[in-house]
Amino acid sequence: MAEESILPPDWKPKEEGDRVLARLRNICRPQVKGAHGSDFVIADGKAYVVYMANDVQAGENPEWTFISTELSVVDLTTAQIEKKGIFASSEMKYENDSLPFGACFCPRIVRKDDVFLRCFFASQNPHKRPAQTYYIDYDLNHDQFANRIFPAYIETDQGKFPMQPQYLYQHAAAKGFKGKAVMHGLLMVDGFKKIDGKAFAVLNNFPAGQNAWAVLNDTLDCFKVMGDYFQPPEAKLTESAVNRLPDGSWLAISRQENRDGNYMFSSSPNGRHWTPHEYRPFVTHGAKSKPIFECFGGVYYLGWNEKPAAPGVSSRSLFNLDVSRDGMNWERKYIFRTDNSFQYPTFREGNGGIYLSVTQGDHSGSLKERIMFGKLEDL
Fold first, then answer.
1. Nearest residue to 358 via CA among 334, 340, 333
2. Domain residue extents for the chain
3. Euclidean distance between CA atoms 354 and 25, whole angstroms
4. 13-378 has which CATH code?
């Protein structure tokens, strides 16, 4: 029996996508020239959006020590941006510690409790020292960061260590991973999934080509690696997004750097043991960019960049957002096609709707110039 359609028969994905694009607005400081990699949570009618940015040039690079991590707060009722500012930068001083020299990279944010949000970020100086992931808390009652930072930890089969790339690499190498060891790149690329009272995260190392599925401990300061999924090694699989399907199994969609660059999928019955990646027929002609895989109101949202048909067009100018009730049968709900690019979006539920943040630009090669924020749809 065919699946009942989620969308009405006259639904027009491109027109609906255009309406969403028209509602987006820049939430960065006026001085920002490069921005990328946003994440956010919704709390008490506001969106707390974190991202990396700089005031020097478009794009991002872990070797640019002038990259900082920033926060913008958006009131969802008035659409006003209430706050913009840097919370971590090279050699920044706090009450209890100072950051080392290097870029502050790829922040991710999770609600810790009724009072605090927790922001994670990596301090990186490639080829000079191992990167270290830190966290800092945001006090909702006082509307400001607690001026203290702390190192995060990672727990693998080998033990508990500071959250640095070599420990994830050693864990994967013991399981047969053949990629290179690098001193930077360990990031929580997909943000957090809150499931059954636990916070789960994808641990990714882009330059090495690693993906791992991890769960945060109850105090939200240590990532325990549950399982790795890097097969087949010739694909070089990175920047995955993961969700749990209705039958309790897990499904990951991963960016592929080698071969044809199309996205590939790995599944697991328990989050620990994962199948080798394979293609699936509902994703074709994928581009090399980060996908998303979310679930809102019992409906899955799968987002991915498609290679444009026209030559010379940015590979991140076309983003498809598909929906499904079972994670197997998909319909195209939105098409985002824009010369400004539509890359590395984040979608979150709250305040009666689904909201998004996304990287866009209009004049540089990378088109990583600002973070745009807006509403996708009502729930």
1. 340
2. 13-378
3. 16
4. 2.120.10.10
Percentage of the chain modeled with pLDDT above 90: 95
Mapping DSSP to helix (H, G, I), strand (E, B) and coil, where does residue 307 land? coil
SS3 label, residue 346: strand
With residue 22 as reference, give the H or E element that holds it: helix 13-23
Please tell me the distance from the alpha carbon of residue 262 to that of residue 301, in angstroms, as a whole number: 18
Task: Report pLDDT digits (tens) over 130-155.
Answer: 999 999 999 999 999 999 999 999 99
Report whether 172 contacts 185 (CB < 8 A).
no
**Tell me, what's the pLDDT at 226?**
97
Task: Report the C-alpha gap between 232 and 250 in whole angstroms.
Answer: 18
Q: Are 131 and 165 spatial neighbours (Cβ–Cβ below 8 Å)? A: yes
Contacts of 12 by beta carbon, 8 Å cutoff, 6+ apart:
none
Residues 294-307 have pLDDT tens digits of 999 999 999 999 99
Confidence (pTM): 0.97
pLDDT reported for residue 2: 55
Predicted confidence (pLDDT) per residue in 76-87, tens digit: 999 999 999 999
Q: Is residue 1 over pLDDT 50? A: no
Residue 224: CB atoms within 10 Å: 13
Tokens for 11, please give them: 């639904």
- Which strands make up the sheet holding 81-88, listed edge to edge? 34-43, 46-54, 68-75, 81-88
Using the CB atoms, write b or e for 357-378: b if 16+ within 10 Å.
bbbbbeeeebbbbbbbbbbbee
Average pLDDT value for residue range 35-54: 98
Measured between alpha carbons, how far is residue 265 from residues 169, 251, 255, 256, 307 in Å?
21, 7, 9, 10, 18
Given a contact cutoff of 8 angstroms between Cβ atoms, the answer to whether 70 and 31 are in contact is no
Q: What is the DSSP letter of 63?
A: T
Residue 170 — φ and ψ, nearest 5°? Answer: -60, -40
**pLDDT (mean) for 262-266:** 98
Residues 6+ apart with CB under 8 A from 230: 172, 177, 179, 209, 210, 211, 237
Model pLDDT, residue 233: 87
Q: Which amino acid is at 20?
A: V
